[in-house]
Write a structure and sequence with these properties.
This protein is of the alpha+beta class. Helix 3 packs across helix 4 (149-164), helix 3 (81-98) crosses helix 6 (192-206) and helix 4 (149-164) packs across helix 6 (192-206). Strands 1, 2, 3, 4, 5, 6 and 7 form a 7-stranded mixed sheet that branches. It folds into 2 domains: 3-166 and 251-276, Aminopeptidase; 177-245, no CATH class. The longest helix has 18 residues, at 81-98. It contains 7 helices and 7 strands; from the N terminus they run ααβββαβββααααβ. The chain has helices at 6-14, 30-38, 81-98, 149-164, 177-185, 192-206, 223-239, and strands at 41-48, 54-64, 69-76, 103-109, 123-135, 138-148, 275-276.
């Protein structure tokens, strides 16, 4: 993150789309905000589109190197949840390796939990703070989850690494609408991590790069309607020149390697911003 990102981040975190995060509608003064951006932070990265437009922020904080754990946060603009989640996943891969962690903590208010349903396979709920948060007229519990490194590696590491690495561009492989519907039935309703898993499966079957935005809006449809829409979008993508697929309709894709959680994001479903504190 650079100092030039501060103005954009202030708008993000004090706007309605950022109200799920730290300030809950409050507008801090610039000096307070600047201090908050780095208070307790271990590492943080701005998530951008392929064109360089910022859409989110992910990072780690409250690190305990001796005990081998830290906390994770992620926040993004409305309609960019899966992309920011993909960036957060790359960050988790990187943090486990870079800092030799065995556990990563997430503190999430109840109203954000639907976006992290897939985490139940790799995370444990280790605590609940009852009526700890107040948002939009009512109290909410805050859950403390821990991501287990071994289970994360078994379930999500490979998927995210495949998404980050270049893949083939064989556009000759086609999936029928029935094939797509059968695939989606295993994942619907889609949460953010589920979206990444669907993309990885589709890329492997099609042997061509896809972007998470091709799944935009599918989380609110049944399997048949979602398959119909996705089939149409895949046909459109296949008709385009392979060299332009990374930029189709402004699409980007998350990128990274084993040393840096480089992340390029796009636009998401209507579920709203990723936010965990």
């Amino acid at each position: 993150m650079r100092s030039s990102d501060q103005d954009w981040l202030y708008e993000l975190l004090t706007a309605d789309s950022g109200s799920r995060w730290r300030y809950r509608g409050r507008t801090p003064n610039p000096a307070e905000f600047a201090q908050d951006l780095w208070r307790g932070v271990q590492s943080q990265f701005v998530v951008t589109t392929a064109a360089g437009a910022p859409v989110g922020l992910v990072g780690t904080y409250n690190a305990n190197p001796t005990a081998g754990h830290c906390h994770l946060f992620a926040v993004g603009v409305a309609d960019c949840g899966p992309q920011v989640t993909e960036a957060a996943g790359l960050l988790i891969n990187w943090a486990f390796d870079e800092f030799d962690l065995h556990k990563i903590w997430i503190e999430a208010a109840e109203f954000n939990l639907a976006q992290f349903a897939s985490l139940t396979t790799v995370a444990d709920i280790e605590g609940r703070l009852t009526n700890f948060d107040f948002w939009r007229g009512r109290f909410w519990d805050v859950l403390i989850l821990s991501i287990n490194r071994q289970r994360w590696d078994e379930r999500h590491r490979g998927v995210l690494e495949r998404r980050a690495d270049p893949v083939g561009a064989g556009a000759s492989v086609r999936l029928s609408q029935d094939d797509i519907e059968a695939l989606l039935e295993d994942f619907l309703p889609l949460d953010s991590l589920g979206t990444v898993e669907v993309l990885s499966d589709l890329e492997e079957r099609l042997d061509q790069p896809l972007d998470v935005t091709i799944l935009s809006g599918l989380d609110e449809l049944n399997a048949h309607d979602a398959a119909t829409l996705l089939h149409q979008r895949l046909d459109t993508a296949a008709a385009c020149d392979v060299a332009s697929q990374h930029e189709l309709g402004g699409f980007g894709r998350a990128t990274g390697n084993g040393h840096s959680p480089s992340a390029v994001a796009n636009t998401e479903t209507s579920r709203g911003p990723v936010a965990c504190t």
